[in-house]
């Protein structure tokens, strides 16, 4: 997969050199390039922002540096069709695990990191010819810029690419993979500071362990995120789940 990120703070994305995503880059599974928006400015001060039309607080990102940067990303795209352009924004659709799975199927993703009050709206309209433009929010709160959102989204998508996570089974049994939260996990020692672990986990009985974990998934989801249960497709929960 090819990923391009445009930002006025390219150093923010240095964390993508670390851990599994960094290794995926080294191994050639992920071709990730970070571009400095200021290198697409044409004035002496490398200006990327200006005052908002209509007045109000804050500054707005100027359209022309964005057009030049995005045109360059588009020109170098290895994708057959329009690559996906993610525009992080608190006013976007909320990022989910399902979205991560969909994005992991793409051959080329681009990310446009806004700052200040955001990017001049006309850039998104203009970019529609070159990209499949998608404003995406990390959640219902406001960050200072898109970089943190990009770190989260690239990690969530990148770990789904084949070969990135050593044991693909660990991608199946985790929170949000089947609409539920993950069950609690434990490791050695079995007795730690006077606290034991659920006896069934020492039983060696795989069917009982699977049922225990399923019950815990359901209990935890009902307790912490009842909204997720409402969104499950009909028939997802068995009678045993409902009784748990
Ligand atoms: N004025 C904008 C609004 O109210 O929708 C918020 C601008 S915010 C201070 C600056 C930038 O941070 C945004 O352009 C976006 O790139 C990023 N950002 C802030 N909150 C975000 C969120 N929840 N999800 C994704 N990106 C976010």
What does this structure look like?
- InterPro entries: Alpha/beta_knot_MTases (IPR029028), tRNA_m1G_MeTrfase_C_sf (IPR023148), tRNA_m1G_MeTrfase_TrmD (IPR002649), tRNA_m1G_MTases_N (IPR029026), tRNA_MeTrfase_TRMD/TRM10 (IPR016009).
- Keywords: Cytoplasm, Methyltransferase, S-adenosyl-L-methionine, Transferase, tRNA processing.
- S-adenosyl-L-methionine binds at residues 114, 138-143.
- One of its GO terms (molecular function) is tRNA (guanine(37)-N1)-methyltransferase activity.
- Pfam families: tRNA_m1G_MT.
- By secondary structure, the protein is of the alpha/beta class.
- It has 2 domains: 2-158, Alpha/beta knot (3-Layer(aba) Sandwich); 173-243, Trp Operon Repressor, Chain A (Orthogonal Bundle).
- The protein has helices spanning 19-26, 63-75, 97-104, 121-127, 147-158, 206-224, 226-230, 239-243; strands spanning 2-7, 31-36, 49-50, 60-61, 84-94, 108-112, 132-137.
- The strands form 2 sheets. The chain has a 5-stranded parallel β-sheet. Strands 3-4 form a two-stranded antiparallel ribbon.
- Helix 1 links the parallel strand 1 (2-7) and strand 2 (31-36).
- The longest helix has 19 residues, at 206-224.
- The structure holds S-adenosylmethionine.
- S-adenosylmethionine is lined by residues 88-91, 113-115, 117-118, 137-139, 141-146, 149.
């Amino acid at each position: 997969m090819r990923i391009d990120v445009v930002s006025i703070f390219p150093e923010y994305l240095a964390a993508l050199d670390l851990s599994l995503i960094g290794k995926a880059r080294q191994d050639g599974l992920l071709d990730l390039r970070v571009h400095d928006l200021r290198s697409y400015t044409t004035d002496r001060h490398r200006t990327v922002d200006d005052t908002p039309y209509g007045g109000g607080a804050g500054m707005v990102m100027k359209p022309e540096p964005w057009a030049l940067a995005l045109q360059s990303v588009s020109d170098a795209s290895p994708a057959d069709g329009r690559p996906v352009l993610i525009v992080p924004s608190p006013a976007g659709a909320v990022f989910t695990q399902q979205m991560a799975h969909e994005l992991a199927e793409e051959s080329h993703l681009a990310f446009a990191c806004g700052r200040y009050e955001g990017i001049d709206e006309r850039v998104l309209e203009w970019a529609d010819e070159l990209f499949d433009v998608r404003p995406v929010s990390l959640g219902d709160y406001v960050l200072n810029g898109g970089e943190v959102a990009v770190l989260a989204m690239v990690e969530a998508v990148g770990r789904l690419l084949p070969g990135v996570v050593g044991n693909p089974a660990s991608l199946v049994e985790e929170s949000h993979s089947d609409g539920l939260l993950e069950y609690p996990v434990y490791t050695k020692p079995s007795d730690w500071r006077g606290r034991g672990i659920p006896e069934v986990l020492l039983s060696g009985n795989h069917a009982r362990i699977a049922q225990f974990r399923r019950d815990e998934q359901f209990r935890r989801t009902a307790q912490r995120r009842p909204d997720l249960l409402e969104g499950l497709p009909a028939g997802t929960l068995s009678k045993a789940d409902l009784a748990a």
